[in-house]
Amino acid sequence: MRRFEDSALKRLENQDPFIVSFVGGKGGVGTTTLCSEVAAFLSSKGIEVGVADLDLFGGDLNIKFDLALSGKTHTLSDLVPFAEELDSGVARNAFSETRVHVYVLPPLKNPRQVSSIYPSHLKKIIDAASQSFNILLVDCASGVNPLTLPVVSTSKLIILVTTPEIASISGAKRIIDALEEESCTSGWLLVVNRSIGARDSLALAEIEAFLGMRTSVIISEDTENARRLTDEGRFLFREKTHLARGILLLARNILSRAQRPSILLE
Predict the structure, then answer these.
(1) How sure is the predictor about 111, in pLDDT bands with cuts at 50, 70 and 90?
(2) Over 80: is that where the pLDDT of 1 sits?
(3) Measured in Å, how far apart are the chain's first and last C-alpha atoms?
(4) Is it the case that residue 261 has pLDDT exceeding 90?
(5) 214/205 Cα distance (integer angstroms)
(6) Could you give the CA distance from residue 154 to residue 201 in angstroms, rounded to a whole number?
(7) Is the distance from CB of 216 to CB of 257 less than 8 angstroms?
(8) Is the C-alpha dihedral spanning 245, 251, 256, 261 positive or negative?
(9) Nearest to 128 by CA among 23, 17, 47, 21
């Protein structure tokens, strides 16, 4: 059983805001699932973690945490009108605490509102919210999205998720190129999700050569178990599977970037 060292938690509390953006080159590569799993793991270790859903048209991160969009649930829609003068307290209050003590900000109540949103709105909302959490995770829409690009490019860490297929990897390369044009200085973690090892259509070396970066985490294909456990409202990282081990490795990689020296102890 691993635990989070109290002194390390204090170091996280005293550091600058740490924003982690999850991005994927196409839909369905697993960014939302991995973001929610990492958030639940971090919370289980006593870390105060917020998650903002910036998939403005199709975000469903709230479902992963069994958070209903009732009239009392705040969303990104409630913060946009106040983005220019938003402070960390107001931003924090818009996040809803879930059953696993992860704080979630769902996307727009009405996707038509996207026409009145500018990239600066999202950037200011995320910057304000990040001051209230040890770590703030951001789940972004797939592909190169001009609205979320400033948030991603100024995050402390970018989790680039791809599956070992041409369409996904090509989309991931477009994200890398777009962020290079933004003079992005963030750290990167490349995650190859749903891998079947030697039977993948593209070898790991081919993926790394095309994207120009090394793989940090490989997560095994286990779609059947993932669907079943998600439908049962259970988190994958708690299971004793290859899939769970991959998720835990990703979470620990994020922790090692958020605070050094290593803060996970036996």
Answers:
(1) confident
(2) no
(3) 6
(4) no
(5) 9
(6) 33
(7) no
(8) negative
(9) 17
